Every structure is written in C-alpha cells, then in structure tokens.
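Quick one: structure for this chain?
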Amino acid sequence: MHVTRTKILTFVASLAFVAAAAFVIHVLAAPRPAAKRSQPVVPAQAPSANAEKVPVLYFAKDPEAAPPFLVRDLSGNVVSTAALKGKVVLLNFWATWCGPCREEIPEMIKLQAQYKDTLQVIGASEDEAPPEQVAKFAQKAGINYPVIMSSAQLEREYGGVAALPTTFVINTDGRVVQKNVGVYPFAFYDMEARSLMGIPVTARIETFRDTGQIFLKNAARASELPGVSFAGLTVAQKKIALHRLNAENCTCGCKLTLAECRINDTTCPISSGIANKIVQEVARGKSPPAASAAKSSPGNL
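Got it. Here's what it folds into:
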C-alpha cells in the first residue's frame, strides 16, 4: 500500500499535537495545558527537580549557519536568507491540513506584528495542493509574513522535517540555535525571540551541543541514542557500535542512518530493533559487516 508524505506527516503531527509538555510548563512562569505541546531540545542532563523555579531557555552551543536559500513567496516576492542577517528568523514548516499548525498561526502573526523590524517569520508550506490554494488559505487566515512552498531540497538541507509544525530558530548572526517541534504558547516564542534580540528576559540561558536534535547530520556526534542501551559495553565496544549505527541505514524507508532515525523518530520500531541487535552483536564480539566497516570512519564520532 502506498503511503503519501501527507498521510505520514498528518499522523506524526497528530502525535506532536497531543504530546506531553512538562518541560514547557517548567519554562513558562504560569502552568500551561499539557495537551498540544511538544518538548523543546534540552541537553542530556536537564536541571534537577530541585533547581530554582526560573524559566530556562536552551540554545545550541556553537550553532551552525542556517542553510541559505533564495526563493519567491506566494506573492512573487524574493525571500533570501542573506537579506535577513540582523533579524531573528523563525522558519516555520507547516501545512494547511495540519491542525496544530493552524492553532499556531495566530501566534506567528502576533510575533510578526509585534517585532516587525527585528524578527521575520517565514512559513514553508508542506502542502501538496497548488500554491494558489495555499495563498487563499494564507490570505483568509490573515498571515502577515511570507509563505514559500517547501521542497525536498530545502527539507534535506535543514535535516528533514518529521513532524508539523517544526520551527527552526535562527539568531541575528544567521545561525540555527534551536528547533521547536510541535505547538508552543506565544509566551515561549516571545521569550526566545526577546532573548535573541538582546532584550532582557527573566530566564536563564543554557546551551547544549547539537548531536542531531537540530541537524540530523550531527547524530554522528552523539554518544547516546534514544531507546538504545549501551549498558555492559566497554568503551571500545561502544565506539564500534556507534560506528555501525552511523554507517548502516534504517530499513523503515526513512533513508536515514540508524542513529539519525533514532533521533528523528524515537517511536520507530524498526530502527530500535536493528540498533539494539547491533549492540548485542558487538557485545558478543561479532565483527561488523565489511560494507559497514568500509563506510565507517573515526570522523563519525
């Protein structure tokens, strides 16, 4: 049975729509509903429950430059990342058929209106419908920021978009400091934007090393992977296992390495099964397949 990309993203978006949000509740001063919220990227060791109740924002340490693009929006105007230096940019992947995305649009509209000179929202539509149909939706919704049609190349350069909405947060130097998957309260985005603009906020800023949470290519830096237990392995064995997980591809159809798939989709049973099987093989001293060994290199760690 053929499964379209729209159906896949619809299913994943529905999961993000109902995901728990204990961390978002911690970030915001006032409690928020747990429904319809997703979990922002946090470092491997989050603050303990006994830490002072101060809002915390997490941004990537040594963030990478945002992949550049030069396209025309649905109104025919040129949208260029090069022209956005000096502004905070929210590159928001969305679709007209995505319920969480529609819920988030008013927040994006409000942010654009409030910080029109220092912030730029860009909507990247994942719709398979004609651009004219998306433009009608945008006009009816009152969207006040440029909307472009997403492409396979754009998604690939930004590491893949597994769920909608997904928003890449780009600082004034043109570097991607965070990736927010799911719907967040306006206050959360407002706090992120103000902090990146240099406006004082009542929050503590912490940094994390991107090991695939923002750009999947950085999964090769990870020393731990979701749902994969390296317990019992020696340091040398763990290194071998990580080499294989970054060299061998998942067979679920995602076209990602096993490590990338575990980070991109923690619910994937295929990558989970293969990854843990590889760990068991390494623990038993089984050598990696020749093809995988040929693709592995110390640079993957």
